[in-house]
Amino acid sequence: MLKVAVVGASGYTGVELLRILYAHPEVAVTCVTSEQNAGKPVSSVFPTLRGRIDLPLENLEPIGISEKVDVVFTALPHKAAMEVVPTFLKMGKDVVDLSADYRLRDADIYGQWYEKHMNPELLSKAVYGIPELRRDVIREASLIANPGCYPTSTILGLAPLLKNKLIDPKSIIVDAKSGVSGAGRGAKVDNLYCEVNEGFKPYGVGGVHRHIPEIEQELSILNGAPLAISFTPHLVPMDRGILATIYSTPLKSATAAELVELYQAFYDGEPFVRVLPEGSFPSTAFVRGSNFCDIGVTVDQRTGRIIVVSAIDNLVKGASGQAVQNMNLMCGLPETLGLDFLPIFP
Amino acid sequence: MLKVAVVGASGYTGVELLRILYAHPEVAVTCVTSEQNAGKPVSSVFPTLRGRIDLPLENLEPIGISEKVDVVFTALPHKAAMEVVPTFLKMGKDVVDLSADYRLRDADIYGQWYEKHMNPELLSKAVYGIPELRRDVIREASLIANPGCYPTSTILGLAPLLKNKLIDPKSIIVDAKSGVSGAGRGAKVDNLYCEVNEGFKPYGVGGVHRHIPEIEQELSILNGAPLAISFTPHLVPMDRGILATIYSTPLKSATAAELVELYQAFYDGEPFVRVLPEGSFPSTAFVRGSNFCDIGVTVDQRTGRIIVVSAIDNLVKGASGQAVQNMNLMCGLPETLGLDFLPIFP
Amino acid sequence: MLKVAVVGASGYTGVELLRILYAHPEVAVTCVTSEQNAGKPVSSVFPTLRGRIDLPLENLEPIGISEKVDVVFTALPHKAAMEVVPTFLKMGKDVVDLSADYRLRDADIYGQWYEKHMNPELLSKAVYGIPELRRDVIREASLIANPGCYPTSTILGLAPLLKNKLIDPKSIIVDAKSGVSGAGRGAKVDNLYCEVNEGFKPYGVGGVHRHIPEIEQELSILNGAPLAISFTPHLVPMDRGILATIYSTPLKSATAAELVELYQAFYDGEPFVRVLPEGSFPSTAFVRGSNFCDIGVTVDQRTGRIIVVSAIDNLVKGASGQAVQNMNLMCGLPETLGLDFLPIFP
Amino acid sequence: MLKVAVVGASGYTGVELLRILYAHPEVAVTCVTSEQNAGKPVSSVFPTLRGRIDLPLENLEPIGISEKVDVVFTALPHKAAMEVVPTFLKMGKDVVDLSADYRLRDADIYGQWYEKHMNPELLSKAVYGIPELRRDVIREASLIANPGCYPTSTILGLAPLLKNKLIDPKSIIVDAKSGVSGAGRGAKVDNLYCEVNEGFKPYGVGGVHRHIPEIEQELSILNGAPLAISFTPHLVPMDRGILATIYSTPLKSATAAELVELYQAFYDGEPFVRVLPEGSFPSTAFVRGSNFCDIGVTVDQRTGRIIVVSAIDNLVKGASGQAVQNMNLMCGLPETLGLDFLPIFP
């Protein structure tokens, strides 16, 4: 039985970790932290947990926490993570970090998009945790940089094409749409019910969203050479879900059937990637609450472009579910343990 | 390992049964039926299931089905259920019926609210399956009449008061609110997104909703004498959830604290009923996707009335989750097996 | 052409006033205020207004404002209103106050529910502005206390019964449901999209909501004697709309048809109250964006209780629309001027 | 006073026409039709209209209708429109057709995407009614082909770029998102609340949506040569609104500021197009219920692509509002008459 801490348990990825870990047969959550709610039971912050997880929220004291757990999930804002992760590592703990702090290999790029990195020496040790692409390295890692929600859907959507050099890497356009939980639980007017409900809008237009360097880093690895993409995120009036519609120009023509076959072969045996049959496309509704990434692919008859559509639950495969998948690998457990639950519909 | 059939698998309670049963460690779903989609994989009707439950939907042939399963869930409209349940019983199967067909003990009352009953002799054998009130009888039953969603929330909300004769039974008013999945998956203009979204309305006003006789039957048993209630259902623009706000006049005054204590004692040890502390009240958001029934109780300072608020997920504790709870009892399994998952939030 | 100020223009009732007044043929909005956004164009706070109302938001200086307008709408929180209303009145302006500050005739009651009143001498001059019940007095007033959203729906729903002494005044239970805009535009976690969406819950349970004294004051006037009610508000995941389901015990029995006739006679000729035919009940969806109050009434066959259902748009008939209706009366304009627009559906 | 018929008044564009026309000072709606509801008052189909528009729905008899009106709006499905429009024209009526039947100049293309055209000789007489691009011709027309919702947002979004030959016409990708009212009021499982709510999905992926030929026809005219686009529509869980995110490659580089200036000049004086300042982008929430088209434009710093975002209310500028705008022009009325209302927010 692994003893686990959820550091930063008062946000949406935190409570989702607790939901998943509660049902995990090899995990006992023994520590939850929240600076602003310290002392209260976590179930007073999230009444869904009442009667099942009533642990008191603790202050974030890395040494004390390390003494009582085996694995640490850091579900903190960026910067807050890199302030504590080194201590957890020094104490010999396995860490799955859900922030952006260890996702970029290059500290300068981190500096451009976020701020000066506090422990750049860890960047080369951290493993960007997409199990479908990097399973073996994850098994050996002690620090997982858990991917962002947009990057997960985009990278899984494009990997078969880039890996097989089927598309012009300069042609990639990712039009992405996210549910509101991706914006976190901070009290901001912009995220009030009446501001978001019954509206649809883009944000970060023009290539400025912080998930871009992370996406480009991973796509460049797949591509074998640097590339740049157009990426535009949008906000959908719903709680959960990310759907990315991805456009690219093929280097040589392929039919929809051939592309579907390629994707099915690429993801053959993957427990959480479902490649849809030709003519079917994903909906976030069909992955909600699950660790699935559903992918559909076709060719635009009029222009020859390849269109890939990928959908995940941003809080599961895009955050907490993938984090547990990474933990399973890192800790030598079966990869799907505690994660093989079905989407909730409706 | 129990082999289980879900008869009527193309509705919302059907797919919710499949979601729950998939994660149940002692169940294998081996048969799913749907007249209108026979031949197709159930995952083509509900893409959430894709890759995990791809069983073909079968026609509803009770004898053939009985030969390959141990337990049958009938998630059919009323009337359709009583056409097949007798056969399943004759074949020696345990049946959990989610329709209204076996909920009323009195065939005449069934006739008034529905239509002439086809096998009234079964009504005395059927057990109205609220485990919190009737656990031992359920264990011995072979036919469970799984309660309706409104009745579950109302009966659990009122049981401690009526059982302890604390309220005037003539004073009960139940103002109930349901998410849209309660209306089923039929193609009706009234249930279109644009008709329901951004609106709130009552329906069945004036004491005409078909769940009333069922509620009154069970409350009358608790009360030890017949009673009649005012019951008004409303439609909430959300997928899941029922919340009942229940008003009654106490026979002698009690404080909120005393009432909370009474409820906590009454439901002490119950795995799925959570009585909230004084001053806290339920939200459907905090039970969504789970088998919990959350209950809060207080006294209206200005009028002395007792106000009880109970909330469930109509598809789980109000239908498929309770059905599995009943199956567990009926089949000698631990009552919470496969049901101890947390609500999904947000 | 009336020159009008909207004081407190950065909240939802403020922007709704601007939407309505923009289309009003006898009004020019010449001043808008907001302390926290002073200096910015109001259209930067509400982009809906862009290109049509780009007035700069001003600081709240009552004397300066008075010099340039004829009528002042104060759409401020309670307390903030009573700090400035006396000055506007001294400057000879007509004031429609949308806060709670002048709604209660009794300063002590105001003190119990809010805080010590700063200018209690104005309470007897203020007119509680429900035009359907107090049209003539409103015409003569210079200070209108614009009713709250819950009170409007409740009072209009009960007036015919109480005025005609048809019900037991001790029997009244009001189960009310509101869209989220009623909670205002403050940045609070409780009102975030993901906290509210897909959930339904009560709040202020037990007779503690601040609209209660206002409702009881007006119902007591109609009743000719003091009364107390049970009032429970709930939050509906939608932007706009209030629906009140009102239960009471008749003093002598009446049929649904007789009650509908009574209501139709009572509201005969009223431009904004629509009494529905027997068997029809309101939905907030059918009044959204309009100044209508829709009312349905029936008798619960099983218990004899009368059930009234009334629905309004909380931002229109429950706030800004009614405020303009009051302004029209106070300023000698046709009562429906600028208000005779249809609900928006879907 | 123009006498107007709304033919096909039981759909969402029909009721939206009635909402707008009710407030139009020079219009009296004297006839409404619906085959399936003939005989009932239109307000029984849409209770929003109750007490204001209670006209009985008539059968669709073009000659009889022509005798009592001056202008006809046909809000019918395709094919149903071309069965009756010729008669209205023969009777000398002005017609605004909201269907697709007269939007394509080429009967063969219509045949490929819809079916064989019944009166192709009318195609050259019909004017594709985008006032911003074709105001003078609309004034002289007697048959307006009112544009589709997706085409309106796309064409207005791209006109300044194509007209000024600033982009590679082969590079255009339109990623479009629509609220659910665009799917109409037919009783289909796919459009049920629980199927649509809390999900986001594409449809018609691969260049197969019927609005494509219409968009390409108009863009080709602007371009001065034929072009083909990639167009992918998506369904957003909200009632109203279309937002198009449009990607293209510039022929020579331009800054965001230059592009904004270009757009502002192009649409200078247009009453219903609002070009947003640099760095601002539209939301459907800020045009809801209004005839505005909001447009933002910028350059993707990483790839040099131009990104245009345009938003409309699909039922107003995308259908019924634009239809009234066209009627105003055709009938010699001020273009904005009855249309200068503000968006409703929240």
Task: List the SSEs and their pairings.
The structure is a homotetramer of 346-residue chains.
Chain A: E1 2-7, H1 12-22, E2 27-33, H2 42-45, E3 57-58, H3 62-66, E4 71-74, H4 80-90, E5 94-97, H5 107-113, E6 127-128, H6 131-140, E7 143-145, H7 149-163, E8 173-178, H8 193-196, E9 201-202, H9 212-223, E10 230-235, E11 242-248, H10 256-266, E12 273-275, E13 293-299, E14 306-312, H11 316-330
Parallel strand pairs in A: 1-2, 1-4, 2-3, 4-5, 5-7, 6-7, 8-10, 12-13
Antiparallel strand pairs in A: 8-11, 9-10, 11-14, 13-14
Domain Semialdehyde dehydrogenase NAD-binding (chains A, B, C, D): 3-141
Function (chains A, B, C, D): Catalyzes the NADPH-dependent reduction of N-acetyl-5-glutamyl phosphate to yield N-acetyl-L-glutamate 5-semialdehyde.
Pathway (chains A, B, C, D): Amino-acid biosynthesis; L-arginine biosynthesis; N(2)-acetyl-L-ornithine from L-glutamate: step 3/4
